[in-house]
Amino acid sequence: MSVTILIVDDEPDLREILRLQLEKKGYQILEAGNGSATRKIVKTERPDLVLLDLRLPDEEGISILSWLRAEYSAIETIIISGTGSIGKAVKCVKLGAFDYLEKPVDADRLRITVRNALERARMSRRITELRVDFKERSKIVGNSNAMGKVFDLIELAGPTDASVLILGESGVGKELVADAIQRKSKRNKKAYIKLNCAAIPKDLIESELFGHVKGSFTGATASKVGKFEMADCGTLFLDEVGDMSLMSQAKVLRFLQNGEIQRVGGTTIKIVDVRIIAASNKKLQEEIKEKLFREDLFYRLNVISIEVPPLRERKEDIPSLIVHFIEKHGTKKGYDIKGISASAISQLENYDWPGNVRELENVIERSIILSGGELIKQIDIPASAEGKKKVDVLSTDKTFSTQLEEVSHGIIVNALDMHEWNQMATAKYLGLHRNTLLSKMEKLKINRNA
Description:
The protein is α/β, with parallel strands linked by helices. The chain has helices at 12-23, 35-45, 61-71, 86-94, 107-137, 145-157, 174-184, 205-210, 227-230, 246-258, 284-289, 295-301, 318-329, 342-349, 356-371, 383-388, 400-418, 423-430, 434-443, and strands at residues 4-8, 28-32, 49-53, 76-81, 99-102, 164-167, 192-196, 235-239, 260-261, 270-271, 275-280, 304-307, 339-340, 375-376. The protein folds into four domains: 4-134, 3-Layer(aba) Sandwich (Rossmann fold), CATH 3.40.50; 159-309, P-loop containing nucleotide triphosphate hydrolases (Rossmann fold, 3-Layer(aba) Sandwich); 311-381, Helicase, Ruva Protein, domain 3 (Orthogonal Bundle); 383-450, Arc Repressor Mutant, subunit A (Orthogonal Bundle). Helices cover 47% and strands 13% of the residues. The longest helix has 31 residues, at 107-137. Residues 383-395 have low confidence and may be disordered.
């Protein structure tokens, strides 16, 4: 991708010198001799960088700089100044210019300064892209009364430093709620670190959270910074906190009580300032009764509690979710999808969505791919959905054993779809041992390519 630089100076000879030096480096060069021409070129060409003389025949360069910073902040500016304008050049840097070059411009200094300014411009654009992507990914769709209560709690919790506990079934969007709280937080420009506790082996989760020192256990060949230290002054999101070991729970509780953490195998106590947002698909009150989750930690995390309702309890949100996912997986990915039929919407509204919003998104994406036209006429309800339907034993001549196998087939395929065919995660979700799941899959002839 070519880089465009606009040189603004009322001296044609100087513009030519700068142009020749920069063209040698492969840059595309535009030129302007006054403020009016500069504004016109910027509006139409959007250069990546402006080399701006402070003294122009129709206006001061500083006014051009102010306009650029206000209207086109992604465009970096380097000031070109004469000996008598150094004070103004320094003022321009304070106003947002990247740097200034004194006339006559040294070729090496020009090359280095331009390179560094373009690198900062590239990083600024990347940060902007990430923020837009983050905003898109963390968008919560829903206008039901149930989601209205969730939005109210997000608004309430966001600006505080209070710990938040987000509860709800798998696939309801707990991480999106956490992201929305972070966006509302006064820490939203600080570190935002996430850890899925269910995805980390229990004997390694302490190291992930608190770090470790070299040699503290087999395989610890170097010291490691934990998520708490990485999130210092920011926010740590602990997803599926109910899967954390009791030992790790005790250390998290210690942090919540006094802000202290200690690396595995270390002796140094460190104080960190971290806000905790936690989430769980487990019923933690029941986990407490089973001695699987600490009651004192539950109350420390549960300062503000947000229960995200399952999709079956807010079906009025399905139409708006359909529109959102058609745009996300259809329009933005180049599919020529214009809409969805009433019968297809009815299919979606009459299904109970055990996999919640995540399952709905997967079904919409699959239906877009299989539609082959501008309209989704029929939804590709997966075999799992059929398996969830009630079987009317009075209206079929199938044996009980056959019907039971059909329902089991649907439930297992649905769970595999939800977990992207990860057998360990699926077995855990179904409450089965992995070997038991594999045995059932073999018996029911379930495989991904079937």
